[in-house]
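Aim 2, interim progress: modelling of the glycyl-adenosine-5'-phosphate-bound target.
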Amino acid sequence: MQKEEGLMEKITSLAKRRGFIFPGSEIYGGLSGTYDYGPLGVALKNNVKNLWWRMFVDSRDDVYGVDAAILMNSKAWEASGHVSGFSDPLVECKKCKRRFRADHLEGGKKCPECGGELGEARQFNMMFKTHAGATEDESSVVYLRPETAGGIFVNFKNIIDTFHPKLPFGIAQIGKAFRNEIAPRDFVFRSREFEQMELEYFVNENSWEGAFEEWRKDMVHFAEACGLSMDSFHSKDIEAGDLAHYSKKTIDFEFDFPFGRGELWGLAYRGDFDLSAHEKGSTVELKYSDGEGAKITPHVIEPSLGVDRTVLAILASAYKEDVTGDDTRVYLAFPSHIAPIKAAVFPLLKNKPELVEKAREVYTALKKKVPQVMWDDNGNIGKRYRRQDEIGTPWCITIDFDTLGENPEQKDTVTVRNRDTGSQERMPIDTAIEMVAGGVSLYLQ
Ligand code: GAP
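Predicted structure of the complex, ligand included:
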């Protein structure tokens, strides 16, 4: 996918117009760096998270899921190095007082907004700070977690004690993370509240390279399963000087977003940094016992995937325009297992009770097998197709007079229209239902 002028605006506008993603707190003028997901956005996001959980947790027998609290004892973030080191360089304009990320400014010492002089860069900690309980002093400070990984490491001992796993094994979590980004930008790409899908895979030190390579392949497989345009998907080795404070090796998976190339996900070898740091910070032993008397601190490989960036990459990959003369058909070519709505069911005419009744029957039977289906009887069929195309519905099923038996040979058949080709096929109701159900479960078996 090439960087395309205006594509970002088209995606943002479609996302809002059709109920995928809205600006946060919009009626109050918004809140920078926050977004609200509407009905289709939630469905899309849930499909991504369910697919990840299926591929990274449920389909394996060596990964354990957790859902840890967002608020954690602040000693955990002191131990992990986030209190002292999780910061970005910030500069302030002496004239207009706007603040910028120093490493995002392209050369010069002038303010990009007003041309004023910029002050010296200083480190700005990105964690959101609040207080737990009624007392607001240093002793009650808590942080909103800046990565879900923290909640995994503090549960290492709980998993060892309750499930007695053998190395290698992983602990996975999906959940919200919060970062007080200096410059949120590019829609949901860089926001202040977002979701992560993270997995810490604990290994014996001498086998980290093999595990790293396995997870690299699994992340590529996940990108394919999400329907990402693989021409736009790249991996980049991070140079030693740019590694996060905990990492010994990191690959960034990058994506050619409509605004340019940017980090989509990361895969890091964190060594024994975290378990050692939390053992020191908590004074609780965080070791693995090999059953023969030896105790080791496992090393860890971390595939870390942002849900919101994945959603943006899926939207950008799926966005298509079919131009015929001066008519443009916009459609989202989601894979069927990712599409928020799998099929729409239409009665040909909404003022014919017999058509509506039969269509309701088909809709109910389909919904029992595939919950993400939609009823649509608004406007003519052409308009309904266009609406469903814009939200990426793979199949539209129309119930007409032939379904009712006007043409006896076609009784109990429906037309199924394909989103990507626009072609229509007549088939028995049961076949249509099986086809939709089969497409949905492609990656979920
Ligand atoms: N536990 C490792 C970690 O958090 P990271 O590279 O800082 O590493 C992992 O974040 C992923 O989280 C990123 O690759 C991205 O997908 C997502 N992410 C990070 N900051 C984000 C932000 N401000 N807005 C949206 N997604 C973000």
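The CA atoms of residues 238 and 250 lie 6 Å apart. Residues 39-58 form the longest helix (20 residues).
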